[in-house]
Amino acid sequence: MNPIYKITGKLANTRRKTRIVGAGALALALCAFGAVATAPVVQDDSDVQVVSVAENLALPNLSDQIAALQQDEQQFIHEERVRSGDSVGTMLGRLGVNDAQAQNFIRSDKLARRILSLKNGKRLQAETDENGQLLSLRATLTDKNSAPMTLTIARDGDGFKASQAPAKLERRVEMRSREIVNSSLYAATDANVDGGSIPDSIVGEIVKMFSTNIDFRGDLKRGDRFNVVYETFWLDGELVKTGRILAGEFINRGVSHQAVWFEDPVTKDGGYYSLDGKSLKKAFLKSPLEFSRVSSGFSNRVHPISGQWKAHKGIDYAASLGTPIRAAGDGTVESVGVSGGYGNMVVIKHWSNYSTAYAHMSRFGSGLRKGAKVSQGQIIGYVGSTGWSTGAHLHYEFRVANVARDPNSLKNLMAAPLDAGEMARFRMAAADMKHRFSLLTPGGNAMAAR
């Protein structure tokens, strides 16, 4: 019978430490586990001969390992929010920074000094060593006219360096439902229910979205309700900006009006559609000028220069020199340049066989060239008096198969329909939003989807 050895270990060269750290405890546990793991498993040891063997198990020098851990540099991260009346010194002081060189750099560097422009409540994050020396300082700069930026001030050799980069935002989808209780849309959206009020920018988009079907000044009545699904963008748990409305539903006097945002994944062109896939956007603006008056309509007239009686194949809009001219619809620039009596002229090709022309411009819009894509409402030029013109105005033509037509006769023309592939993708998006609407109806789950 082969004896099975029962090993009892004596720890060599050990002494009790006054401080026990995690690394030493872990090493001891591993050594002990290793010794036990070598013993074979025996089911029945009634006739097994047991021989005790005393053996020294040498452990690593734990004191050296502990000393090495204690020599590692300690780093600390602090977070604070900007307070009214804060200076560089008070901000850094609350962040645990005790670094005169860092203070001087923030005061003197143009980019770093933007820290001082942060509004009350904005978050600051600082990383320091155990002596309070600044290793890095971060903050998010927000400006309504530009994308949020992350400003970083970091130690660089013997000094500091400031840099900024686009902030990485977290996108959330919010769902809100409201009921009109006093004929006021804004009063309903201010109600602090189901997670908070609805931003004014979203309310404005709701009005634009449904204003062709609802008169928000006179049509609203008590009991009307609406549901809205929209984007928000967050950074470190703080709301940075609101995005686009993804879907909206307004029940006005018992009639439901719905809209879903759909964007082509390739071209990134998008717009709002009804749930059956029909565009809610008119194909063309009523006028390419925001503020103007018609000085000559689509009709026969005496030409102001030649004096001859002839057809006027467009509409003239009187406006001040330099008034911005907007593209009447989405399309591609077919031509841009001087064209005889038309002077400076732009022609845009739209879907199907529609095109529009804009003449007598003083100058063209920035970056406008043949083949360029333009979107409805984009500035393509400015009112002038070039070519055969007796004063500042815009000559606007609407053409079907290159034949001038009266645009007022086609004012209800809808935007280009979705093709088969787009319609299939749209139905999937519409089904998702329809499900969200059902959750927001009374009795449904109206919690915000995050």
Describe it.
The chain has 4 domains: 4-71, no CATH class; 75-166, Nuclear Transport Factor 2, Chain: A (Roll); 170-264 and 419-450, Nuclear Transport Factor 2, Chain: A (Roll), CATH 3.10.450; 293-410, Glucose Permease (Domain IIA) (Distorted Sandwich). The two termini are 70 Å apart. The protein is 18% helix and 38% strand. It is extended, with a radius of gyration of 36 Å. With 450 residues, the chain is of the alpha+beta class.
Largest sheet: 10 strands, antiparallel
In total, how many beta strands? 24
The assigned CATH architecture of the largest domain is Roll
Using the coordinates shown, work out and report the CATH topology of the largest domain.
Nuclear Transport Factor 2, Chain: A
Ranges where pLDDT stays below 50 over 5 or more residues in a row are 1-42, 297-303, 305-309, 445-450
Mean pLDDT: 79
Q: Structural class from helices and strands? A: alpha+beta
Q: How much of the residues is beta strand, in percent?
A: 35-45%
What gyration radius follows from the Cα positions, in whole Å? 36 Å
Shape: extended
